[in-house]
Specification:
Layout (H helix, E strand, L loop, with lengths): L1 H23 L5 E3 L5 E6 L6 E7 L2 H16 L22 H34 L18
Antiparallel strand pairs: 1-2, 2-3
Length: about 150
């Protein structure tokens, strides 16, 4: 009986830790590296091998790469992170792991570029607005007040 008790408590702690790690992942099929990059990979059906889908700056880019790969592997019934963003290119046909990897990394790279471009442009615009320094040699103009 003691063995049963310990086994059940171990399984409870494992389940709890798994739930904790699932909460940290914002999307299915991705994980975060220690240094902050997001990576995506997927198992090939009926095989032990995995298809590497790339390393990305944003979790959304990694998730979109995963969605592309899972769609080509499992078809329209696949569980996707962003089903509204998937654009099916005609019929699904049997594709090799290399061609799936290529399509997924193209999508992920495109989304990563858009996401990081948007983030950097937002940072630049906020820096530009906060970096406006007043001309201390100019007399204050009562008409152009900062008050709204």
């Amino acid at each position: 009986m003691e063995g049963d008790c310990c086994t059940s408590s171990e399984s409870v702690s494992t389940t709890t830790s798994r739930k904790g790690s699932q909460r940290e992942k914002p999307y299915r099929g991705i994980r975060m590296r220690k240094w902050g990059k997001w990576v995506a990979e997927i198992r090939e059906p009926n095989k032990r091998s995995r298809i590497w889908l790339g390393s990305y700056s944003t979790p959304m880019a990694a998730a979109r790469a995963y969605d592309t790969a899972v769609f080509y592997l499992r078809g329209p019934s696949a569980r996707l992170n962003f089903p509204e963003f998937l654009v099916a290119e005609g019929e699904l046909h049997d594709m090799s792991a290399a061609s799936i990897r290529k399509k997924a990394t193209e999508v992920g790279a495109r989304v990563d570029a858009l996401e990081t471009g948007l983030i950097s442009s937002q940072l630049n615009s906020s820096k530009q607005s906060s970096n406006k320094k007043p001309d201390l040699n100019q007399q204050p103009n009562p008409e152009s007040s900062d008050e709204d």
